[in-house]
């Protein structure tokens, strides 16, 4: 990684909507406001897609089984997700972003990075732009958002969570290393429960503890994540905001209330998933070379089967044929199936994508000089 002779400090905002799905439901249905709410399924194998802040006080959170959420909060209200509504609101949200910058990198329907180094709206500072965006979201969408403002993506994303909900947190150039040093190691993105446990066994609890380790030590214990951890623990992240960031895959999956074991039931379930996933593929005008079938059995054993073709899959017939072939190769199943999923990957639009997102440190022009925020 080479230093640029005259590095320019980026001004990056990470905007994250507050309890997005749940907040949209409470906005659209006044009877739900102020009540513990979960978007998702309450059935035996339903999963919480989002929880309102009233529900979070009881320990309800996304990806939690619905039965567990109900146990923690007996008064919890469940509503079915309305993804078409969330997508429409997300489009409005991006319209607001576009008033302030052309450099927008979506991460999901409800969060994005914005590079506001060029103040095209003449607002005056990155902090003022973040406040203006939040004001527009509140008045036009009747929702709230939190924002992190900093000189790189890693710190901006962590900062957006500091004053949630409905808050802003700013980490200026020169403050990043100290800010990161005080973070729990689990706040580093990519550090899941197992990695955090391994770190704890090594005496690593905070960002400062990570920073104290040599790159060689981190490579020995954390492999490909070492370079990212080494840089991030020093407040460094040289990735640019990529408005053209290509998605690497498109897919979908379903968990079933009752295990599927009959061939006919599995084939029927697969057809439903094909319908869902192809709609997403078609909507994104995506073309890919690899179809992957994901199967989770009743005992939670999970397997995947994939097949790649050339040229890329361009029609629904081709996608259906490969998907069905992958399932047929597994039939009959010896035990019940609780989940099926399909993914199209090796997308043509992602051919030239590099490892920037994985390494967290790619890019040759580091950005560390100080400018007004």
From TrEMBL:
Cofactor(s) it depends on: Mg(2+)
Binding site for Mg(2+): 16, 110
Transmembrane segments: none
Catalysis: reaction(s): DNA(n) + a 2'-deoxyribonucleoside 5'-triphosphate = DNA(n+1) + diphosphate
UniProt xrefs under InterPro entries: DNA/RNA_pol_sf, DNA_pol_Y-fam_lit_finger_sf, DNA_pol_Y-fam_little_finger, DNA_polymerase-Y, DNApol_IV, IMS_HHH_1, Rev_trsase/Diguanyl_cyclase, UmuC
Feature: compositional bias, Polar residues: 351-360
Location relative to the cell: Cytoplasm
Alphabetical keyword list: Cytoplasm, DNA damage, DNA repair, DNA replication, DNA-binding, DNA-directed DNA polymerase, Magnesium, Metal-binding, Mutator protein, Nucleotidyltransferase, Transferase
Site description Substrate discrimination, residues in chain: 21
Cofactor mode of binding and number, as noted: Binds 2 magnesium ions per subunit.
Documented EC number(s): 2.7.7.7
Pfam families in UniProt: IMS, IMS_C, IMS_HHH_1
Keyword Cytoplasm assigned: yes
Domain UmuC as annotated: residue spans: 12-192
GO molecular function: DNA-directed DNA polymerase activity
Region (Disordered): 351-373
SUPFAM superfamilies, A to Z: DNA/RNA polymerases, Lesion bypass DNA polymerase (Y-family), little finger domain
Main location: cytoplasm
Active site feature: 111
Subunit structure: Monomer.
Function, in words: Poorly processive, error-prone DNA polymerase involved in untargeted mutagenesis. Copies undamaged DNA at stalled replication forks, which arise in vivo from mismatched or misaligned primer ends. These misaligned primers can be extended by PolIV. Exhibits no 3'-5' exonuclease (proofreading) activity. May be involved in translesional synthesis, in conjunction with the beta clamp from PolIII.
Record PANTHER family: DNA POLYMERASE KAPPA, DNA REPAIR POLYMERASE UMUC / TRANSFERASE FAMILY MEMBER
Family that this chain belongs to: Belongs to the DNA polymerase type-Y family.
Protein name: DNA polymerase IV
Organism whose genome encodes this protein: Congregibacter brevis
Gene designation per UniProt: dinB
